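In practice, a research group might receive sequence data for several interacting partners and want a quick structural hypothesis before committing to experiments. The following worked case mirrors that situation: the sequences arrive first, and a predicted assembly follows.
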Amino acid sequence: NAGVTQTPKFRVLKTGQSMTLLCAQDMNHEYMYWYRQDPGMGLRLIHYSVGEGTTAKGEVPDGYNVSRLKKQNFLLGLESAAPSQTSVYFCASSYAQTYEQYFGPGTRLTVT
Amino acid sequence: KNQVEQSPQSLIILEGKNCTLQCNYTVSPFSNLRWYKQDTGRGPVSLTIMTFSENTKSNGRYTATLDADTKQSSLHITASQLSDSASYICVVSGYGRGSTLGRLYFGRGTQLTVWP
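A structural hypothesis for the assembly, expressed as tokens:
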């Protein structure tokens, strides 16, 4: 039981490049989330999903897109990376909305 | 405005000592309050979740308290260990309005350092 895994762990992009971050969970959770964490700030929700095939915007969705084609996977895409997207990205999942969220190890992204 | 404020911002204690971290919130309506521990370079890990009706909840050497009337919570760490060095994050869940997800409000965390 791996819990929540994220790939890649680190990535450096040039401004304007695109990439996809992959999150996978093996706990059969319905809910999945993408957060970003910046120094001195709390975690901020980018997008979330309440089930396979559904996605919704969170607090800071601009510049990101997501897809949940399979229940166990939640993808976060950056179509045209900007330096402001330099951050640590965390994926999380939960059984239901009010239940404990399990976080992945994070992806450190640098956009130059 | 819904906010979660944590204090102190950082704290240094000696191994074996106790400490208490504070969390004040203005989130309304309130659903539950969570404490997470985040080690450097790792994702947050849940310590406790408390609903409106719960005053105290323990997880080993960690004890969280909640006063829903004053909208305050505390996390007490007993007999600290070097492995307790981490950021402790208070998260308050509010009921969603017009959306499918109750909103989570994250504090900025208290950075705890335990010295030998």
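Before designing any experiment, note the following. The interface with chain B takes residues 4, 31, 40-45, 48, 50, 56, 90, 92, 97-106 of chain A (CB under 8 Å). The mean pLDDT of chain A is 94.
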